[in-house]
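User: Assemble these into one structure.

Assistant: Restating your components, then the assembled model:
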Amino acid sequence: MRAYILRRLLLTIPTVFFVTLIVFLLIHSIPGSIIDIMVNQQESTGISVTKLDKQAIEHSLGMDVPIYTQYGRWISEIVVHGSLGESLWASIPVTEEIAARWPVTFELGILALIITQIIALPIGIYSALRQNTWGDYLGRTFAIFCIAVPSFWLATLVIVYPAIWWHYSPPILLIPFNKDPIGNLKMFIIPAVILGMSGAGGNMRITRTMMLEVLRQDYIRTAWAKGLNERVVVMRHALKNALIPVVTLIGYQLPVIVGGAVIIEDIFGLPGLGRLLTQATESRDYPVVSAVVLVTSIVIVFINLLVDLSYGYLDPRVHYE
Amino acid sequence: MRMIKEQPLGTIGAIITLILLVTGIFARWIAPFGMSDPHPLYALQGPSFKFWLGTDNIGRDLLSRLIYGARISMIVGLTASLLSVVISVILGILSAYIGGAFDLIVQRFVDAVLSVPSLLLLMVVISLIGTGMWQVIFCLGISNGIGGSRMIRSLVIGIKSNLYVQAAVAIGAPTRKIMLHHILPNIMAPIIIIFSMTVPSVILAEAGLSFLGFGIPPPAPSWGGMLSGSARKYMFKDPWMALWPGLALAIVVYGVNMFGDALRDLLDPRLRGGAGRYGGIIRKRRISKVITQENSNQSMAVNREKEE
């Protein structure tokens, strides 16, 4: 077990290195033509304090030195000083901006994950228990529906139709959780349901498949033979064992949820990391862009690490080589 | 034609996929109007006899735009998936067959790509290389391809230990030939399945990108783009504009998904959790055996009922 944890931790190092390399190469290979656009664009952004010319932009992106020096400088800034650079137009440290924004995305993501499970688990279990009945077909159709319906369309409908029929529109300004918890939850619940639904389909199908597999095991037959009632057999004996792949799936779904959060935050105007990223990409504020992508990716790497390590606790049968 | 009997949903999916292809290819002849012919007098109208699905804010026929949009979805779906599968296969086979340190490094790179949320990656890349259909296809193909190589790799690792591969190595066949003639044909079925599963996800990704303004720029009638930008202001006056593109997208993604599912069940029962289409037969046999053995056992009958 200890050897496995160590090995898994060591393998994380090259992954993190590659993540930094990908983000670095993306941002630092900006073609010259884009710099020209940036010079022209800063008038239209309106947020620039001092006008930057081409050389100044290249300098603040660190592009005036050889590329390996740039990478070394960039990494040492992050590791030694904990600095992710400065916003190009607003001239404030990116870390401050991220610190202000991440709670929104975090809350949206957590709520969405919870809602995914609330939708997926009961329907998946029911589908498996009543395999090939109408309830099962209904559940599976709903799963495909969740996968097929694009979240941005659903969100658009949720905004457009209530506005027309009941003159209702979602709140525009963020309500902080510590000031008005109910209002805050009311604001987040619709975006979170839409975001959660997109993940629910896949989760539902995995839950169903795993439940079907587990329900055929000998120990389930034993449990029935002992005369245990259905609730105990399903919840205590079957579900616990069926849930292990579902936990893995959560790790895989994180990048999708983050991507979805970008779209959902954009539609509902939630000031989270996703909104920051769309705004920064539109105004070509590349230090901000690279910082957001880097931070979210590294967080995902480590959550996946936790997911992998949690197997040992969830499933005592797992023996790490 | 086993499919129609065994996979009714898959058949519906196949029909939807076929409709998408036909509309995409023959868009010019099917669409009643051009994709950006304005009819200013009829702007923002609901469905009518002249404009079956209504018109948008500058009076363009929504049905015609949807039909031309099908062409975009079709081209993006097919070409980006093809590119993605080719990259997956090359990377997957090389990584699995060469193995060792090379495999370790390549797989950490794949881990890294899988950790970067693909939408974020795509937005950044497209903001650098510019919007447009071919840029979107290129980006979607590469990012999906690198992630998808994981699956090909695990398939090849399974095949590598087979006797016929070892025999080929023993008679001194060149590595390139082993990969092309011995390994590739054996993973053809999963490759087709992976391709069919990539198509809907790529279509959705393109729509999402175009929606955010990092995909195919207007006036091209991308289904995602039709829901974004200036159209959003007019939707409150003409809610039909918000309805159709998403509905088309949902139907197509549903259809291609169902088609892919059915294809998977038909081509490769192993990829399914159970025994694929033979699962039912095997289960029935097992149960009838159980019943004959313990005919008097009532609880077993209850068990069987629960199980099925």
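Residues 2-272 of chain B form a domain with the MetI-like fold fold (CATH 1.10.3720.10).
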